[in-house]
Amino acid sequence: MAQYASYIISQITNPLSLILLLAGNVIGMVFGAIPGLNGTMAVMLFMPLTFGMQTGPAIVFLLSLWIGGCSGGFIGSVLLGIPGSPSSVATCFDGHPMAKKGMAGRALAIGMVASCIGTAGSAIAGAFLAQTVADIAFAIGPWEYFGLCFVAITMVLAISKGNMLKGLTSACIGLLFASVGFSPIDAQARFTFDNMYLMGGLGMTTVLIGIFGVAAMVEAHAKGFDPLPEVDTGMIKGIGIKMSDIMENIVNIIRSFLIGLGIGFLPGMGAGLSNLVAYSVAKNNSKHPETFGTGNPEGVWASECSNNASIGGAMIPMAALGIPGDSATALLIGALTIHGLEMGPMVFRNSGDIVYLMFTTVAICALVCFVLQALGMRVFPLILKVPYHFMYPALIVISLISAYVDSSSLYKCGMMIFFCIVGLIMSFGGLPQSPLILAFILGPTLESNMLKAFQNTGTISTFFTRPLSCIFMIIGIACVFSPILKAAFAKIKRNKA
Question: Do the beta carbons of residue 265 and residue 325 sit within 8 Å?
Fold first, then answer.
């Protein structure tokens, strides 16, 4: 890596690259903060502008858009309670309650610091571990992917506020929604009802914002608006938190970082999964798990550190294997191909300078985002000063526009209203939304890998024939029966007492 230092420095210090880096981070943060938009969409929209650029500035600009979008996603989650992308879903659970309590500045500061730690740390780790981790990824098959998805869904059931049955019901509904469209192996149409708009499945934007965003706003309007929280931005000193806050959460930070990095390098997983898994693990290991969902800073630390750590992790299979870790890296592979670069095992030999330029750019973008967010942190909470009867209609309109942009069809707007109704019914029945969202995200991956594994033996025992997948399955089953086991142990303890 040292032999590429001169090339990396020349590209980063290029005036054009510096301008593109700053502009990309700003644009990405705006896309990340607005519900329905994200860094991936920013990369998609601005990618054609890079076709006429040289390779170095093009990479810097595209990565800046992506990192800015990932780092800015927590702003909307904290201030509005609407995730800017699937990677910021878990941030809503405690970030928005903190804002409602008047601690918006503290929540933003935690998100800002955690994002910087996760992004910069994962970029450095990815630069050193890319080839090694790529070798490990070669040994992972559909059995391990299915086991990992199974563990992820069962672990997130812990967010179900103690009612495992309702959590399982919610997860099953999510899997049902994920099965709409063509099946991954035999391409049979399922639950399409001969409707051409359902042939391609249900859009992520439509389901996510409909159930989690619009439904929450409609419910809040029906219950009546609480008094607007008073946020005194003048009380925010420095970056909003102290070093002692970081040290108190250092175990949670390291654990969430490793979860994000590990899940990120698995193709098809990424930040949409890691933030929910890290949040669940943080809750299970907390001394006060009952405070999660009411404004516990530990939840924000876990979510934001893990989802940004997935960035560096997702770049590992992209660079070393030519396999996209998520949708953003898939777009980056396409952009790099246009510039004559083919990602894969040979890229370190043929274009090692480009690979390490990418990791360096990600680390620098993390610092740039940190500075920009620190400068704007005292302005962001002013969004809460906007009266709800002005804010909510505007957000609903933005949500409908997001659904239309996602497919250029008004049908998706109607589908978003349908999922808004689904979200309201779930809220009325006490069904948690998190298992549904996670099951919907992981449904296609879960099903495709299950069918691939069944091609060998056709029985469920196939998932217990490989060590890693067997471990995943045992952990998942233990998570399902954990409430029963906890109740049994508690009863034994009471009898002894």
Answer: yes
